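SAMPLE LOG
Freezer: B-3
Tube label: C17
Construct: single chain, 313 aa
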Amino acid sequence: MTHLVSILSEHLLPNFLLAKEFKGKYNKHIFITTPRMSENNIASRLCNVLEIEKESVNVIEVSEDDLPDIQCKLKNENFNRDDKYLVNLTGGTKMMSIAVFQHFFKFDAEFYYVPIATNKIENVSSGKSSPLNYRINVPEYLSLYGLSIAVSNLKNTQNVSKGEMFESFVFDCIRKAKNLYPEKNQIAQGVKIFRNHDEKQNDNEIDVMWTENNQLYVGECKVSLWKPKEIDIYKRPINNPPEYLDEIMYKLSAISKDFGLRVNPYIFIKKGLQPNIFNEDRLRSIEKRMKILGIKGILNEMELLNINLLQKL
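STRUCTURE (predicted):
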């Protein structure tokens, strides 16, 4: 019998990807977890995304930074020496990885590491690497972080707002440029994010979201930066687009932190950053703020029509 050994942490993407890539090469799962991970239902979360029953998994709870405790817990499991073990060393703490390596080194075992954002698998035993061919989709990716979604993917563009029309335009430009398929959940428009699956009210909404090469991309779409703001009985525009852009960037950065270590947030503005408002000093300030907040780019309508540019996002 062959077991896939996974060391769990809050970021389950490497565990999920290796499990999907090696599907058919193993019979059973072994999860190495901690009390803190158990409190956050991390093992159940991975089971749900892999569509396996938690009861079928050998879940071993260890102290994350106590090497003797981890060694003792693993020894007490009395693993079958006639079995084979495929060990993913990517997750968990360093102490957990060291203890797991030390323990299974005595068995018929192969050790692997999945570097973030490289789409390759490092075979620690042989020193060779191989391509990671599996590609995650939007619902799978978000489910790894305990989130569920509902999407609109507008098909009928009649009787919709200018904002929704622009969202659809952005959606179509990215879909075509990157050859993504909504029916395969590779790209979605109007993505409502739910932290609690049973709640009817969503926590956040992303205008356009897609996955490419096992990375997540999120897009905030705005027709312009003239934000209607209720000041009195009349709705007068806020005459400060730079202030509104700051608000958009901070909000997008905060939301993106819920989606893991490597998220790519973009802002799409139909009219772009108009030169009469955004002079060179302001543009330099915006670039600095983008780097701090992790915003990857701000694109206008004309840039969205540039297929070569979109393919490089």
